[in-house]
Amino acid sequence: MASIPLNEIYQHKLNFLIGAGASSGLFPTLWLPIKDSDDEEKNETIETLATKLDHLGEQFRNHHALLFMYYYEKIIEPVCKFQLSDVHIPHDEECTKDDQCKVCEKIKFRKETIENYEIFIDSIVRLLQQKNDFQRRCNLFTTNYDGCVPLVADKLIKKGSLEFCINDGASGFIERSLSARNFNNYVCQSGVFGRNSSDIPQLNFINLHGSVYWRKSNDTIKVDYNSFDTAVIIPEEARDGLKQLSDILNDESKTTQDVLALNVELNEDIRTIFWDSYDKLPIVNPTKWKFHETVFEEHYYQMLRLLSYRLEEQNSILISFAFSFADEHIRNLIKRSLSNHKLQVFVCCFNDKEHETMYGYFSGYKNVTLIKFDDEKLDFTKFNKEVFNADLLRGYE
């Protein structure tokens, strides 16, 4: 199947699950160029490599710390500092002004990613506009901790052509605090004399793996989209080792064994300085899928319960895109929810290889539909054009 029957499902209870592939044009993924020495047809990822180093124990504690320093600098920090105005990248050399210019190509991908988020949110809102009164809400779950959805939604709201609101679970005015119960709130409009009322289309935006815009404040989580400082410390004494590891990780001719063979020394104080600052980050680690702060951990499980509750409702729809189902908690939760035969799940597969993986996960479930294109990649642009099509939604108006 290559499309979602929107005309059949738009009145149902809509849920979306978005993964890292949606933002891959803006931010690096966990994928690494080096090969897996256990199977050189596969590449390592930060997740798989970190898991191996974790299992190898104390002998490789320095490698483990350096890998997470790399993960922070290459993936987390760019997300923390990102703004929509950061699309353009300065050229280190004179631009060749042709298809060979890698910087121009990167700028093009960055623009396309933001545009795709705009089209996606626009499509959701157009669909919600067609729903019955007081049903114009959907849940957008994501394991991404970037700000693409809220920043793009804010941009669309400022344009004024779409009337909708986004609910990130936070309430307050100057200081905004996160609470699961806020996802039960929604906004209505009424006439001057209160005789007529209607609800505004609303996206509940739910960060399952945390957000770079969260901060711990005593026993609460504060949300601040103007905060860019993570306070993570990478000591200067670790820089040489980090450079050596980075060179190996980005060399396609290297394997896992080259990482393990790296001879690097970090004293305990250096590791402690880094880990003490890193562990305060409000995001799930790519290995054990857990937070280090209790307040974040509690919210994580509340959001998993919310996902479970939404999927157990009658006539629920779940559309997943750019999501690998690598998180076993989420994968198993969705499998359990499939006992609700009124639930329909549409899983978008990037390519044939991912389709095989998803078939292995969900082949026994009649209420799961795998969506792919033969010999073509189902990227964000194709998803918007041919799977979740905005023009088709406007046809309902």
Can you describe what's shown?
The chain is α/β, with parallel strands linked by helices and 397 residues long. 40% of the residues lie in helices and 17% in strands. It is built from 13 helices and 15 strands. The strands form 4 sheets. A 7-stranded parallel sheet has the order 5-10-4-1-13-14-15, sandwiched between helices. Strand 8 and strand 9 form a beta hairpin.
Low-confidence stretches: none
The CATH class of the domain at 6-27 and 118-228 and 289-394 is identified as: Alpha Beta
* Helix/strand order: HEEEHHHEHEEEEEEEEHHHHEHEHEHH
Residue share in β-strands: 15-25%
Tags for this entry?
single chain; 397 residues; alpha/beta; Rossmann fold; 4-stranded antiparallel β-sheet; globular
Brief account:
By secondary structure, the chain is α/β, with parallel strands linked by helices.
Task: Give the SSE map.
Elements: H1 6-9, E1 13-18, E2 31-36, E3 39-45, H2 46-56, H3 61-81, H4 102-129, E4 137-142, H5 148-159, E5 165-167, E6 170-172, E7 176-178, E8 188-190, E9 197-199, E10 202-207, E11 214-217, E12 220-223, H6 239-249, H7 256-261, H8 268-278, H9 294-312, E13 316-321, H10 328-337, E14 344-348, H11 352-362, E15 368-371, H12 380-387, H13 390-394
Parallel strand pairs: 1-4, 1-13, 4-10, 5-10, 13-14, 14-15
Antiparallel strand pairs: 2-3, 6-7, 7-12, 8-9, 11-12
Helix pairs in contact: 2-3, 3-6, 3-8, 4-5, 9-10
